[in-house]
Amino acid sequence: MTPVPPIPQYPAGFLSKYCWWYVRAVPAPAVTIERTVTRSGKTFHTGHQAWHEAETPTVYRTTTTATTGPLLGLPEGEVLFAVDRLLADPHTETRALHRVLIPFATAANEAEQLGEAPDTEPEQIYAILTAAGHKLTWDETVSAPMPLPDERATLQIPDATPIVHATRVTRGTDQRPLILEELRAGADRTQLAYRITADSPRTFRAV
Fold it and tell me: Angle CA(146)–CA(24)–CA(19) in degrees, nearest 5?
């Protein structure tokens, strides 16, 4: 068996005098996006509401996928309205991609205005759904995946940099999903903030 060499013994103060340590400084994200939804009367507010649109919103039809379908309580292949927005922070020009997915059932049965104008701002969508009789709640999950090449180019973020991906489901009075929102931004420039309040456990009834 090879003997283990003894641990070197250095005089007092040797390491502090002759050795230097390099600590990499990690800058704080430039922008904090407040994700809490607030309400004043009939008006709703979100944290990215002050961001301006860097491009005209893109409205199109798409279908639910293996990822978005379960979030909306729909099978794969159901038709949706989709609205993509490229947003920019007015102070730093940090970019974010925002997407709204609206099921046809929501547009037809809950708010006909959304079928006529799917590119309605999210805050106005909340107001429309509330006026239709819903008491809204939101579920949100956050992940940090690596971006697709087109996302990296659009967001103008460096290589090997992850994004923050927030997925928000707006639920109606019966807890049925009404719309789905996605927000993507570079993790090197943005962080998400939430105000958390205590809530009563949900009561489930046997069917």
Answer: 145
